[in-house]
Amino acid sequence: MRLFIGIPLAAEVSAELSAISARLRSKCDGLRWAAPASWHITLQFLGNTVPEKYECLDARLRELRFPPVPIEIDALGIFDRAGIVFAGVRQTSGLLSLQQRVTAATGLCGFVPEARPYHPHITLARAKGEGRGRGLHELETRMHRSTTFTPFVAREFLLYESLLGPAGSRYEIRAHFPLDGG
After folding, report:
1. In terms of DSSP H, where are the helices of 64-180?
2. Does the pLDDT at position 142 exceed 90?
3. Which of 107, 130, 133, 174 is the most exposed place for a label (fewest CB within 10 A)?
4. φ/ψ bin of 13: left (φ > 0), alpha (ψ from -120 to 50), beta (otherwise)
5. Active-site residue identified among 40, 119, 137, 176
6. Are strands 31-33 and 121-127 parallel, antiparallel or unpaired?
7. What are the tens digits of pLDDT across the range 13-29?
8. pTM
9. From the CB of residue 94, how many other CB atoms can be counted at a distance below 10 Å?
10. 137 is catalytic
C-alpha cells in the first residue's frame, strides 16, 4: 500500500478552491485537475508500505497528542519543474511543529522524512504531456495571486492510501487521528 499523512480541508475552503479551479480550467490547458475530494495538505509522504509497518504507524500516530492547528491558505502558485498548480498554505509554527511531530512518530517505524524543506500546499492540477510548459504559462497569466481564503482550524489529520489509476491517483482514508491535546 502507498501511504501518506495529511490534513483534510474545511468545506468552505474546498468550495472556494472549486470555484477558482472552475474559473481557471480549460479543455486545452494540458493539465490534469485534481478532484476536490482529493485535496489535502500533506504532512508526510510515506510511499509503499508493508502491513507490519502500517500497524506500527497506526500505533505511533495514535500516541501523538497535539492541539488543533489554525490553517491559512495563501496565494496560488506553480511549481514549474514539477508541473504543479497549487494553493500555498502559510507555514505557521503550529503547522510546522505538527509536521515535525508526525515525522518523528513515523521515524519510530522506519520511515525517513524528506530531505527538502517542508512546503505545505494543496495540489490543484498537474501538467501532463509534452506541452506542459505552455499550459502552465498560459494558466499563470490568468491566475489572481491576491485571492483570499477562509481560515480554518484543523481538528484532525488522516492516514491516506494512494491508489494509482489511469485517471490519476485516488485517495482512500485509512485512519483518523484527532488533534485535541497538547
Report:
1. 93-107, 132-142
2. no
3. 130
4. alpha
5. 40
6. antiparallel
7. 999 999 999 988 887 77
8. 0.92
9. 17
10. no
